[in-house]
């Protein structure tokens, strides 16, 4: 129990130290995530290097705050499960 607690406390202290040492980077990431909700790997890596990320383009003038309908999804096609219940 004591050994496990010591390991957990050591890891907690180290994690807190890393976050404290990189507070500016954490705040930059938070700011971008509040604006965009997601980050791609190159954007995250740029922020970790202390660089800035270009802001999102302005939405079309006809629909403030909503993304254009033609925005392609980065996901593949939606998978719809085919359920065929069988008698027990």
Q: Mind explaining what this structure looks like?
A:
With 88 residues, the protein is mainly alpha-helical. The chain is built from three helices and no strands. The termini are far apart. The model has no long low-confidence stretch (mean pLDDT 81).
**Got a strand count?**
0
Over the alpha carbons, how many angstroms does the gyration radius reach?
Answer: 22 Å
Structural classification? mainly alpha
Number of discrete helical segments: 3
Give the termini separation: 48 Å
Q: Percent of residues in helical segments?
A: 40-55%
Summarize the biggest pleated sheet.
none
Quote the average pLDDT.
Answer: 81
Low-confidence stretches: none
What coarse outline follows from CA principal-axis ratios?
Answer: flat
Written as H for each helix and E for each strand, in order along the chain, the element string is HHH
Strand content: under 5%
What distinguishing features does this structure have?
88 residues; mainly alpha; 3 helices
Short description:
The protein is mainly α. It has helices at 2-21, 23-36, 41-48.
Break the fold down into its secondary structure elements and pairings.
Blueprint: H1 2-21, H2 23-36, H3 41-48
